[in-house]
Amino acid sequence: MSWLTKYKDITSQTKRLILMEFFLQTINSSYFLIFNYYLNSLELSDDYIAQLISYRFLITMFIALPVGFYVRNRPIAPLFRLAVILLPLGSFLTLYFAESQNTSLLKAAVMLMGMGATFVQVLMIPFIMRNEPVASRMEAIALHFTTWSTTTFLLGCVAFLGKSILGEAIPELQYLTGVTIMGTLGALIVFFKIQEDIPQDREAPMGLRQRYDWLPIAKVLLPAMIIGIGAGLTIPFINLFFLHVFAMPYENFAIMGSVSTIFVTAGSMYGPRLKQRLGTRYAIVSSQGIAIAALIGMAFTSFFSEFLLAYVLACLCYLIRQPLMNLANPLISSFTMEYVGERNREMASALQQSLWAGSWFFSSHIFAILRGDGQAYSTILLTTAAIYALGVFLYDRLLRQTEAG
After folding, report:
1. 227/191 Cα distance (integer angstroms)
2. Dihedral sign computed on CA atoms, order 46, 48, 51, 54
3. What is the dihedral of CA 140, 159, 252, 366, to 10 degrees?
4. Residue-wise pLDDT tens digits, 27-58
5. How far is residue 367's CA from residue 364's CA, in Å, rounded to a whole number?
6. What is the pTM of this model?
């Protein structure tokens, strides 16, 4: 366990920013666990839920690139502070308009949440690359990736224990409201003073084409975009799979998510060590390859869902797939930032989030069409697995080329 001691070297400022992200992620994670169940309780259909969720990805797709342009040679901290305002405000408005069935303003509120989340998603890694010493940079990125899994674990425990203590599940609306209040209060830590290094361009002003190295950016982001297309078909709606195929209530899904995120957190933090032992290529390809196999297994459980064994196997596949797919994320992000070079990092991060969000927006609408046409969840999961496999193949090819020099 000596590899854990390296996390002590992360600067206090980076730790404080990651703590801010942790509190904001409590809001995001609660929506991942509960929001679809809440919308389902309002008797909204799967295809409508998918279309609504897609608006969050739509706003990210549109604003991520302008954010990347803006922060080049500018401070990042003010946008973190803006995120602490926009994301909770969007959450409160989303719950209010969902309860009042105001569908037009509900879409706008979801987009407001997406805007706040975008600032954090796009800028956290560039902030780390700017301000964290090289020796602890990989650990800082890994710690950043644990915020989602850690908050999911804690919120799942709250949902499960709430039912155990109260004798019934906490109503979805009250649960989401309480988490939003807690996340907002905790995230206010970002309003303390933040010192950051702001790189200065010493080059003569150039046009957009000359300012960035577009070929390496395109090569490293293509696999991420393809994996994003696959993820968008499944990840935002995986709780609906368990709800409709196995009639799993939200508190059970929440505790299963909690268990899986223990492994996600451990895997993300062990990622730098795995990279040292296996190398970047083997660490990424092997972990994601096993995750794809688990997703295929989950798809086949829907064919005999009436048996208890299928339910157990589906849960087991979920617990295998999620940690292994997420284990590679810090390694991929670190590789991406190093591959594109210092002057391209903000743009690469912004473009990655824009492409990822665009992929999820596109895939969410495909999911809505498929479910609207009555397509089974097994078809959607197997399609996701095939798309994932293509993305992992492209990562493997790019990493081989990099290793060969």
Report:
1. 35
2. negative
3. -60
4. 988 888 788 888 988 888 888 888 888 888 88
5. 5
6. 0.72
pLDDT confidence band for 303 (50 / 70 / 90): very high
Cα 297 to Cα 25, 380, 384: the distances in Å are: 29, 13, 12
Handedness of CA 354, 356, 357, 361 (dihedral sign): positive
Sign of the four-CA dihedral 25, 29, 32, 36: negative
CA 378/CA 300 separation, integer angstroms: 6
Query: Which structure tokens are listed for 284?
Result: 């990424």
Tokens, residue 230? 């696959």
In sequence order, the 6+-apart residues with CB closer than 8 A to the CB of 150 are: 22, 25, 261, 265
Domain boundaries, the chain: 10-195+211-404
Mapping DSSP onto H, E and C, the string for 208-224 reads HHHHCCHHHHHHHHHHH
From the list 52, 223, 204, 197, the residue with the least C-alpha distance to 130 is 197
Structure-token pair, residue 256: 């299963």
Q: How many CB atoms sit inside 10 A of residue 295's CB?
A: 24
- The residue type of 121 is Q
- Could you tell me the fold of the domain covering 10-195+211-404? Growth Hormone; Chain: A; (1.20.1250)
Average pLDDT on 377-388 reads 94
> What token pair was written down for 322?
């999620």
User: What tokens does 56 get?
Assistant: 């969050």
Measure Cα distances from 227 to 71, 144, 152 in Å.
27, 20, 22
The first and second tokens of residue 133, run together, are 């010493």
Long-range contacts, stretch 332-338, CB < 8 angstroms, 24+ apart: 332/224, 332/284, 332/395, 333/125, 333/141, 333/145, 334/137, 334/138, 334/141, 335/220, 335/280, 335/284, 335/399, 336/220, 336/221, 336/224, 337/125, 337/129
Contact 242, 321 (CB under 8 A): no
